[in-house]
Every structure is written in structure tokens, then in C-alpha cells.
Amino acid sequence: MLEKVKDVLNEIRPMLKADGGDVELVEVTPDGSVKLKLLGACGHCPMSIMTLKMGIEKRLKEKVPEIREVIAV
């Protein structure tokens, strides 16, 4: 599951970088939680929660159905 999550994040990363941000994978737990840290412009953007939930989490759940939730740390 970890490698699948990394692959999806690598697909998403260019879009984040285009806006001056990035994402760091902190942990994938056995119960399907993915812990991410938003970096750069994404780290302090007021829309970062929307990016996390409606963008990254949605894409991860589509590609890796075992994912239960995405948490910002």
C-alpha cells in the first residue's frame, strides 16, 4: 500500500509544485490512514484543507481503495 500511495503522490506533486507547494508523506498506518505534511505555499494557504480533502484524499481513495482517510500533520 505504501508504494501505491507514493505513486499517487508523485502524480499529484507537479500540480502542487506549480502553485509553489509540495507534499511530504509522513506515514501510512496499517488501518489505512495516510499522514501528510503540506509544504511550501501549500503549508500556509487558507485553501490547504480543501486541497488535502477534495484533491489529494479523493485521488488517493480512487487509486488506493484501502485508504480510509488522509490526515494533515
Protein described:
The structure is a single chain. This protein has 73 residues and is an alpha+beta fold. It has two helices and three strands. Helix 1 (2-18) runs antiparallel to helix 2 (48-63). The protein is globular, with a radius of gyration of 11 Å. The protein starts with a helix and ends with a strand.
Which overall shape is indicated by the principal axes computed on the Cα atoms?
Answer: globular
Strand order of the largest sheet: 1-2-3
Number of strands: 3
Helix content: 40-55%
> Can you summarize the main beta sheet?
3 strands, mixed
Mean pLDDT: 90
First-last Cα distance: 20 Å
How many helical stretches? 2
Radius of gyration: 11 Å
Which structural class do the helices and strands define?
alpha+beta
- Uncertain stretches of 5 or more adjacent residues: none
Strand-and-helix sequence, N→C?
A: HEEHE
β-strand amount? 25-35%
Q: Topology, please?
A:
Layout: H1 2-18, E1 21-28, E2 33-40, H2 48-63, E3 69-72
Parallel strand pairs: 2-3
Antiparallel strand pairs: 1-2
Helix pairs in contact: 1-2
Summarize the structure.
The chain is α+β, with helices and mostly antiparallel strands.
Task: Please supply descriptive tags for the structure shown above.
73 residues; alpha+beta; three-stranded mixed sheet; globular
